[in-house]
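<instruction>
Derive structure tokens from the sequence
<data>
Labelled lines for chain and fold
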Amino acid sequence: YGLPLAITMIRPDLDIWSPGEHNGTFRGFNHAFATANAALKTYWSDDKLEKETLRKSETIKQRLNAMVDAQPSFKAEIRGRGFFIGMDCENAELADEIAGECFENGLILETAGADDNVMKVMPPLISTDEDIAEGLDIIEKALATVLERHGLLNSAA
């Protein structure tokens, strides 16, 4: 449910700390283990979450591809897996501006890549269709705003 969960397994002879003496997420975080157990029982007891994730991720990719296709002057490639989808922009400055415009409209969109040229679309797995549509609307509006600012907007789109 959003808590860091990790574990490091070490040989018993190297595990010299007493309970409570040394801790951190790598040492085991009981609250995270309890919530992970609840999440597994809630979301992974059947294949519903997996199927919904695949369906929604395909919707996201199709919509992002449509945005790129509608703007021939905007060169970008959509790629990714599941809900970890990136829009790899040929012009990194545009990616940064679009992400900034998204932020101004209530959507946090990180950039990554060698030149911060990839806009990362990473909605929570439990996002509704409405939430996803709203986020994509913000991206589309931001893209149009930035392209218009640079005289690159295809108004026929």
